[in-house]
Amino acid sequence: MCGIVGYVGKPPVVQTLLDCLGRLEYRGYDSAGIAVVNDKGIEIRKRVGKIKELVASIKQKPLDGERLGISHSRWATHGEPTEVNAHPHLDCRGELALVHNGIVENYAELKARLLGQGHRFRSQTDTEVIAHLVEEHAKRLPLAEAFRSALKELRGSYALCLIAKRDPTHLYGARAGSPLIVGLGKGEAFLASDVPAVLARTRRVIYLNEQEVVELSTSGVKLTTLNGAPITRKPSTVSWDLSAAQKEGYDHFMLKEIVEQPSAVEQTLCTRLDAAKGQIAFDRRTRTFLSRLTSQEKFVIIACGTAYHAGLVGEYMLEELAHVPVDVDLASEFRYRAPMLDRDTTVIAITQSGETADTLAGVRLAKEQGAKVLAICNVMGSSIPREADAVIYTHAGPEIAVASTKAYTSQLTVLYLLTLSLAKRRGLVTSARLRELLTTLGRLPKLIERALEVEPAIKRIARRYARARDFYYLGRRYNFPSALEGALKLKEICPRIHAEGYAAGEMKHGPISLIRKGWPVVFLATDSAVYEKVVSNIEEVRARKGECLIIASEGDRAIRRHADALITVPKTEELFSPILAAIPLQLLAYHIARLNGCDIDQPPNLAKSVTVE
Ligand code: AGP
Predict the structure, then answer these.
(1) Taking the complete model, does pTM exceed 0.90, yes or no?
(2) What is the 39 CA–ligand 1 centroid distance (Å)?
(3) 242 pLDDT exceeds 80?
């Protein structure tokens, strides 16, 4: 969703703001803008489309800032993506400018009041009311206080950055429900939606908490509550560097992140798994959390999109190996059900970003009802881990492409660790079998590396099917979620294609009626307890002249005669097969999208993290 950058420091301010904003492009947006304070007051420039349009316009008609400015990439919520609606937004006199990520839910009522007080609005956005609201309060109060008073009137979510002509040395920011971090450099400071924006300049960051306000200048940081009470917080040092957030020679972040999966999974495992000793070690907080689980414990997994698919795989493994009853819910539905939660319930929130609005709301609901919350998350310091009782970080490194790849396989890896650790605690697995499973788990990075060798074959298959407009993805048991994930990957990055994932056993209950000659159906037919049933499903599709693209286990010769196109992955236990099947599914989506000329890293209408409902 919207990207925010604020800067106070030294010239060239505009260049700094544009460079930093460019590193947030992955978040998805449809217009961009910038505002700086200079000797003319506040100067502003906005463009619809990509940041490069904004850059071109500044090249044509330069814009100068002395030491202070803000920039924004907007993902439209209120009002179409037009120049007028693009951020920054100004007050009536053009003397203060702000950028916003989030939704002001009570904007209509605030706007009516401000119109009555004589304010003139230019845009259809909810954001513009905040500028006028601060202006109104600033008639009686110093700017910092006016900002806080305005914030107290807002309902909804916000990450905000504000600059004012009357205060050319200070940058103001605040967060409630949308992410905002402070970056501290030498003689300069930043506000940004996410760490990659500032990594080229600093790795020292402060993560803002809910309802905190920050005032930045070149000489320091002042952090307060909404009431102005001072807060002390030491900066943390980000453990990864800029190279992790750059393409490094790959054409797309998505491809880079697919290829990074062996090392991402290695990172997820490395400090936790000792296969030789048959041990899994989580950090102290997680260990304490797990030791509190009762024998009647039930799990409810909540997540969205790809993380939800990881949760579905988790359901199979947790029930089968750890004998825990598990429900998996889309967070957007969970929050509006009346779920039966109690002290014997653990809600597991799975999320790459840690900021997904629905998952966060689900976490809050779970806590209100007395359930325990465990987060599985990739982004350190993000909202969901901070609100959870314990967190297992995936440590996959920054995921920039909108389509989630390495976060998914790292989430699966955490679920393997969790399942096997619970199975051990509950005495449900013999030491010999546990050691066997942990050895395979430890070999996953190598097996993923081998799975990646399918890329040349996938490229050929992608060429053959790139013009198809409908795909089905079918799988059963552990690979039913793989089918959902494969279809999501393709439709997400190649919007010209309609792709659906189903449980293969559901075909006869409806979807098979659509199969016609040449319709590509991707089958997950790796070695499993339901292998023969999947083969029967393949035959049903072939009988209707559908084209079967089969993902099978290495060494499966018998499957060849059923396949129009065959991709093999290393043979492994069924439990671990989704992590290997994910690789050809991701590569297939990537290469088909590429052949269709799609904007792979930033597909239209999608945002990397969905911080509004
Ligand atoms: C995945 O490819 C998608 N971009 C999307 O479905 C994503 O998984 C979903 O929005 C959840 O995000 P989160 O993991 O950051 O909570």
Answers:
(1) no
(2) 43
(3) no
